[in-house]
Specification:
Layout: H1 19-22, E1 52-56, H2 65-75, E2 79-83, H3 88-93, E3 97-101, H4 116-133, E4 137-140, H5 150-162, H6 165-171, E5 174-178, H7 193-203, E6 208-213, H8 214-220, H9 224-230, E7 235-240, H10 257-266, E8 272-275, H11 283-293
Parallel strand pairs: 1-2, 1-8, 2-3, 4-5, 5-6, 6-7, 7-8
Amino acid sequence: MNNTNEFSRRGLIASAVGGAAALGLGGTVLGQAAATPAPAADSKPVADGRLQQSVCKWCFKSMSVEELAQLCNKIGLKGIDLLGPDSFETVKKYNLVCTMTQSHGIEKGLNRKENWEDCLGKIRKAIDATSEAGFPNVICFSGNRGGMPDDEGMKNCAEALKQVVGHAEQKKVTICMELLNSKQHKDYMCDHTEWGVGLCKMVGSERFKLLYDIYHMQIMEGDIIATIRKHKDYLGHYHTAGVPGRNELDENQELQYPAIMRAIADIGFKGYVAQEFVPKRDPATSLAEAARICTV
């Protein structure tokens, strides 16, 4: 993520690529048949799709926000995920959206009252900046268990969110708590969809939903398409990545992303699906290929 102090991810693979090379989309993706080349720069593979796609900046460390914005325009992506307000003017310059605004960190979250002042303060500031920019979402996290029972953590998260969700409603911004797997994000509390849905019901606002991370939930519980269909009313945003490894959405990983994307489109989802894989190959080519795979 752009702010690595607050949004740490394990296993980042830095991809060295020059500015000009980063923006080139020609050629065939390595390891794939020549019959399915990556789209050309002007083909915009998502233009005719039913879903709005974006990309997480932290996965593309070799690119500046401006370079990634230029690449988004070439591919046809609608925005960039997990940015702070300092990047808003850049994405606006390219007629893009910050599809998810940063707030507080992952480990010290809303499940502990001693974290509320810091977390809620950052959420409020993010809501104000996001609303002023005309963008849709602000991220939040449950925090780690640290021995706390899940039901107690849910009650604490709900109590905290009720203090700020009214502000989100007024500002027409949706707060999204991310579902993460607790095998890699050790001890993270919001690690199952059912827990997150229970929290949504407890908060009781259309302006609080879940960020359904397909990569994390495949690792944690599987049953992706059935879960999306069952809990569609509580899922406000999606992240992608190949499993295992968090790399390209190609034949080397276990998820069938075209089928998953069709399921998301079929439930009438109008939000954003953000690519959150860490490219092992040329970043620009891999992002264009992922966009093509997820265009349904």
